[in-house]
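Researcher: Structure for this, please.
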Amino acid sequence: MRKIIIFIISVFYFSIVLSQTGREIMEKVDKENKYKTAVAKSRMILINKRGQKRERTVVRFEEDYEKGDVDKKTLVVFDYPNDIRGTALLVWSYNIPSKDDDRWLYLPAVKRVKRIAGKSKSEYFMGTDFTYDDLGGRSLDEDKFELIGKEVIDSVECFKIEAIPLEKEPTYSKRILWVLPEKWVIKRVDYFDNNGNLLKRMVCDRLENANGRWLYTKLQMNNIQKKHKTIIEIEDIAYDKPLEENIFTVSMLESGRILLLGK
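Model: Predicted structure, token format:
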């Protein structure tokens, strides 16, 4: 009898959520993952088609903005290996679908900041399987969302959502996202190229609670077309901590002090 009751409750719960739109579900994801600032220290493993591995460590800083045109500012700094130590990417993401993100790359070897043009947003960053576009924020207003069903991923029933970009020259023709109900985190994302072919797949594992927020601490981006993958393992993360003033500026990149930020 207890199993029957649980089954009925489960069916009732999913019928309620499925009555929501894809946009409403993604708004829940956005709300549950809202924070003012975040600092994450991660290990990154790059694996080529021959199985050869390269390891890197990175520190990522983020700040979200609730008002204005800016949606998020992101700073990614490499700490290891020594030949790329201090290399950094600064991204300003906007709430305006027609406006490209602003991106700057700092190269410590030449002590120069290079602005990344909007047409380069589809290029891969530092040999990883993440494009420049992936590394910034993406506001909900930049996509049209449609709930297209539900599907079991790793024994967990998820909501399946199609995201169609609204910009004129998108990096991907569409994305398919699998959202874990109740926790409202993204379990998997499939990315499709502009010919409609599956380009790569990101799978998230190791669900943990950090400071009251649920997140996956292991991400694997599998580039199906290039037969290459990038694994990111989050080793430490802190939310809503004060960040140094002017951290998300070109002048901070040029100062050479970025390696001190994550210490």
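Researcher: Any notable elements?
Model: The first strand starts at residue 37 and ends at 47. The first helix runs from residue 2 to 18.
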